[in-house]
TMhelix containing protein
Amino acid sequence: MTFVIRSLLLLGSLVWLTYSGKQLIALGVMSQPELAIEHINLTIQLVVAAIIFKSALGSKKSDSY
């Protein structure tokens, strides 16, 4: 059951991370970084998705014991 939950969490956060990142890149954040501040909601979503993704990957090590 833990495997299924972790897999769904990883998949969901990866999709969320990809979607938010694509939106920021489409807005032109790479050429004008100040746009990330204008679209703070989208930037926060990207950061939260990255944190969830990192924590879901990191929890794999603790389950192996």
User: Anything to note?
Assistant: The mean pLDDT is 83.
